[in-house]
Amino acid sequence: MIDFRSEQAYYGNVGNVFERRLNMKRKALAVITSLIVAVGTIMIVEMINSTILPIEGSVMARNPDTVREAMTSRPDLGFIVVVIGYVLAAFGAGFIVTKMSRREGGSLHLAILCGVILTALGIANIVLFPGHPMWFIALMLISFIPSAAVGYRFAR
User: Does pTM surpass 0.90?
Assistant: First the structure.
């Protein structure tokens, strides 16, 4: 029988609700922070790559045919460097999200979530900038989630 005179019996353990909300906010902040670091890593690798191997023509052209032509004229080494940057970014995202959410029970789910979001951003990049080789698209699609999982494993 429930004793309704006790506040805890009537309201439940209110502290657990607030604690769960705070933990959820910390996990969301960890995911956002790790994604910011991952996108920053990708941007740095892309800038270094475009400095070493400049793209011919105007990449900022609004014509998709011009962008496709510039991307197809790019050497394979440029795409390999970008894939390595993707792997480093996803690894860093998985590592950071695990370290930041460790107190809140940082699980593999958060690292996988970061990998899925980065994969979606990579797909958006492929759609916006046509002309990537098929091997690059395949490597990009399979690189984010396992790399984030490895980052999680190193952080544990």
Answer: no
